[in-house]
Each structure stands twice: as C-alpha cells, then as structure tokens.
Give the backbone structure.
Amino acid sequence: MTDNAAYDYIVVGAGSAGAVVASRLSESGAYRVLLLEAGTKGSNHFWARVPVGTSKMIDDPAVNWCYKSEPDEGSGGRRIDVPRGKMMGGSSSINGMVYMRGQAQDYDHWAQLGNRGWSFQDVLPIFRRMERYDGGSDKLRGRNGLLRVTDTPRKVPLLEKIIAAAGRIGLPFNPDLNGETQEGIGMSQVTISGGKRQSTAVCYLDPVRGRPNLIIEQGAMAEALILEGKRCVGVRYSVNGVARQARAAREVIVCGGSINSPKLLELSGIGQGALLRSRGITPVHELPGVGENLRDHYSPRIKFAIKERNLTFNDNARGWRLAREALKYALFGTGFLASTAVPVRIYFRTREGLETPDATISILPFLYEMVGRQRRVAKRQGITMNANVLRSESTGSIHIKSADPAEPPAIRFNFLSTEHDRTGILAVIRKGRELMATSPLKEVTGEEIAPGARLQSDEELLDWVRNNAETTYHPVGTCKMGSDPLAVVDSELRVHGIEGLRVADASIMPTLTSGNTNAPAIMIGEKCAEMVLATATARKAAA
Ligand SMILES: Cc1cc2nc3c(=O)[nH]c(=O)nc-3n(C[C@H](O)[C@H](O)[C@H](O)COP(=O)(O)OP(=O)(O)OC[C@H]3O[C@@H](n4cnc5c(N)ncnc54)[C@H](O)[C@@H]3O)c2cc1C
C-alpha cells in the first residue's frame, strides 16, 4: 500500500455534489483538497458534451455504474436499470439535463422534520448564487452563478399542439417552472449552453484545473474510510488495482451518490451491526439508517402514435434529415442533437384539496425502442410521456451483498408499496390520456401504444405499471439527514457519531423533491462546502 501525502480535505466522488464541494473548498487556496473519482473519463468525452449523448451513455459501463435493482413485487419481479454516472461530473455528465429545483414546500418540509437551515428561504440564496439563468424574476433566479441554465427552444411543431391542449385542460403555459409556481405546462430549463452539456465537471472543475491545491485523481475507487476510533482520518482507495491511502487532517466528505455513499459507509463498518457482520465486516459504529429510506420516482412510459408526419423527433432521426441535424449541430450548436429529450413538462394536482402539484408528466416528442440494450429513436412517429408522482412515499433500501468493494449492492425499491403512490400513478396515467384526447392534439393522435386503450381498470393499469415502469433515475435518501433514529447525517451533513466525516449528495435528502434531482444535489454540494468552511473558520477563531 502506498502512503500518499496528507490533505486538509478528501472528497470522494466528483459528481453533481462532489465536484462542487471540491471546487469550493479549494477556492481560497488555503486548503489542500484531494478529489477521488472512480470514473476514468472527463468532460471532454464526446457523448458527454453533445446533449443527445444521454441515450448513448445510459447503458455504457465506460461512464456508468449500470446498476440493476433486485426483483420485487412493485417491479413485477423484474430487475430495473439503475444508471449512475461514473466519470467527472458524475450523473450530471450523463443525465437528461433538465434543471428543476422542486417546490418551496419540499425544503420547508425538510426544515419541519427538524433540519435547521434547509427551509426554502434558507436554500433560495444558494440556488440563486449557483445558477446563471436569463429568465424569471430577479427575486427568485440567479444571474451570475457558475452553472449555466437555459430555456429549451419551442422548436418541435408538436410542442405547440401539446401546449394548446394543456391550456384546455386547465394547465396554462408557465414561463418559469422554477418560479413562483410550478403548476402548468412549461418548457424545460436545461443545463445546456451553446449546444453543450453543462455538467458540474464543466462548470465547477474545468475552469479551476490549474489550482495547485486541488488534486484530482481519476480512476480512483474509494474502498473504505480510515477510522481511528470514532474519527474518520482518511480514505483507502485503489487505482488500477493498486491500493493507496490518503489522510485528511480536517474532514472527509463522501459524495458518492445515493447508491455508493451508503455502500462506502457499510464497507467501512458504519451501518446496521447485524447486517455488516453477516457480510463479514466488523461493525465500528451502529447506524441503522445507512442504506434505508431509498426513494425514487417510479415512471411508467405512456406512448401514443402521432398520425401526421414531421411533428416529432422521429422523422429527424434518420436519413438526410439526420445528416441535416448533424450539420446544424456542427455549425450552430442547435437542433435535435443539442436538445434535451424532455423539452416540455406539465405539473398538476391529481386531486382537490392539494395546495401545490403532486404529479408531473415529462413529454418526449418522439418514440424510442430498445435494440438489444441500446435505446434508439423509433421509425414510427409518436410521443412518450414519463409519468411521475412527485413526492412518492414508497421506501426501499440499498445494502452491500459482501465485503467486496467491487460487488454491486442490493437495490430494493419496493415501488407502489403505499396507497398514495398507487392512486397517484393511476391519476397521472389518466391525465396523460386526457391530454392526448384534447384538441388540437387529439386531431393528430393515433393509437395508444402503451398502456393500450384496452387497459382501463385500476388493477389492469397497476399491473401494467408493475411490469413495465422504469425509474426516472432519481434515487435519494439512503443517508438521510435528520435527528430521528434512522437519520445518518445531521443538518450540517455530519455523520452521526463519527467525527471528521460528512456525506453530501442526493443520499442526504430525507424525502424526494418535486422534480429532477440534479439541481438539488448541486445545491447540497454548495451548502455543504459553506458549512465545512464555516467550521474551519470557527475552529481558527477558537484556536
Ligand atoms: C440517466 C439519468 C438521467 C437523469 N436525468 C436528470 C435530469 O434530466 N435532470 C435532473 O435534475 N436529474 C437527472 N438525473 C438525476 C441527477 O443527475 C442525480 O440525482 C444527481 O446527479 C445526483 O448527484 P450526486 O452528487 O448525488 O451523485 P452523482 O452525480 O452520481 O455522483 C457520484 C460520483 O461519485 C463517484 N463515486 C461513487 N462511488 C465512488 C467511490 N467509491 N470512489 C470514488 N468515486 C466514487 C461516481 O463515479 C460519481 O462520479 C438523471 C440521472 C441519470 C442517471
């Protein structure tokens, strides 16, 4: 084992949150920061730059952990794909690039659970500071941050029909889905600028690669935390099979994401004692919540054929039209290749009495099909709708299967295990059908491909969901923040009972946010860095 030099801080994982933490902690130049990233590829990876590359990377083990869930009742016994970015920028380098903060109520709920400093009023200044966006109100939106956020252009002809139909079912156009209200139909805001993906690697790390106090190791897989008693003092990791270790004089911040952060804690002896022993690991610190509280947005894909030609992306994805799109992209950085797959979304309430939306449909103006393991834009013209209950309540778990760091953990989603999630998803499917049956969309709508018009009853539809839904790739909550017996970190993201150790990524979210999880994960990275630096300043003042 090679002993590396000591650092002030070690950050594990250069993803949405970790890249931000490392960038901010190294900003002043006062601290030496080591950033360990298991993936080998950087932001110059071709498909990570071109927005359409998401579909190429979604099952590419060169840049993706390509996990799979365990079969369970909610998935009809299937193993569901759980893609996670494994490269600089983490999942922000392979994701769908939709930028959605969620609702003010999401964060207020975290604060109500006892997490001081996490109400919407607390986190709003962080969101404003981190983003660079031209639209919306000055009160709510940030203009000068490091993360470039833009509006998706309203270019696909079908979108105008979708927007008009949504208006007729009481969902008017909302110019800023991250603004005062989330309700209505709106163009997706995206982390795309100049036709290129804006991952945290691009926005937070590439510009500061020259900092002498920020040491980045790619292809460095953290295998265990080094604990001396109840203090974390470093990380054991491997590069190309060679074991190494590094020591942190101040803190280790684990940012491995919702799957790998609890896994690393468990491999280090932090978690449920009996489970760890059964996997051959000596428990160091009993923390029963590690790996529990897994939440995600379960998502059936509703599909309809579109009868009229040239309304969807499907027509642009082959032959001379694809060549034209490639040229458009090469010359101007625009067109189909420069777009998110989800240009427009609706947010709505599934029942009376709710104050804010509890459901969303993300609309892909095309059909896709699976060719082997690859997703391809289909020949047939159509529309795909990803249906989500926003704050779904089903919880599952992630636990190691063995003491081998290379073995993927067992991911159990337990989807549809609450009445709330079952009735919610039925309402979302029916809203999707209602939208497609409304003018002027109705006139171009063809056959309902999935679930299929013959499935009407609650049981038929739930059965279809169980057997066909995927996730929306938003696992959260497995190292949840709080003060109850299942909380893993406190409101400053310090691991309960262990000194010198924090977790900062999507795993700390106690509950799901109302929408996609990249923006919240980046905010968590920003807030963590702020708290770590405040601790350092306080210690200095006290010394
Ligand atoms: C296919 C896909 C599409 C998505 N679409 C969207 C979208 O459109 N909009 C949106 O907001 N969200 C989207 N998401 C979700 C969003 O990207 C994630 O919630 C967010 O990126 C999570 O950030 P994180 O910091 O928690 O983890 P990640 O960004 O996944 O970062 C974890 C990092 O840690 C590294 N790592 C893990 N374990 C180790 C280890 N042991 N040693 C060293 N390094 C390690 C990983 O390689 C990775 O780089 C999508 C996700 C996926 C996968």
User: Anything to note?
Assistant: The chain has two domains: 1-152+197-296+394-415+474-543, 156-187+298-389+429-468. The first strand starts at residue 2 and ends at 12. The mean pLDDT is 96.
